[in-house]
Protein: Large ribosomal subunit protein bL9
Organism: Parasphingopyxis lamellibrachiae
Amino acid sequence: MDIILLERVGNLGTIGDVVTVKDGFARNFLLPNKKALRANKANKAIFEANREQLEKENEERRAVAETEGAKIDGMTIELIRQASNTGQLYGSVSVRDIIVELEAKGEAVSKKQVVLERPIKAVGVHEVRIALHAEVDATIKVNVARSPEEAELQAQGVDVLEQMFEKDEQGFTEEFDPNAEPGEIAAVGEEEDFVEPVPAPEASDDTAAEDADEADAEAAAEEDGDEKSA
């Protein structure tokens, strides 16, 4: 479908350009959002008659967007969320979450202006684009952390995820070895929690003598049994 752009649209062109787009894109997005007109003879005449006014209004909207963009560009919002030890969120950060935090800072943006290219599903500092106008963008930082303390570390440039992995690697756990020799270390729990098996008590001289007598008696009984059998 051939259309006349009423404002700049991505890589298609700028105001007044006549371009060809897919029918679905035109019907579902450009035309209902008043970003374009069908490029027929009647609409071309209407556009040319109102071109100066349309360009003036576009400049005014762009100026307002530039002012707003200067206020929020580079801004950081903080979101505290539950996450696993690997940094994966139990859920994800939504566009609505971002809008609410910006409103708390006195900045109002619409749902359509928040360009979340992929869901935020892990802790860390993520950049999100705010499209304030067809020609004006701003970028904010979304600091997602499990606690205010971790958020502060991330704001200072500390990689909290890397610290989590390092802690997991250092805090290893070993299985208790029931066959460990006396004096060997068998670790239980964290690597600093060592348990040393207690060696079995040594037999006393009296006990050893009693054991020898019992062994001699058993041998004599077996020998007497063999003689009777013969």
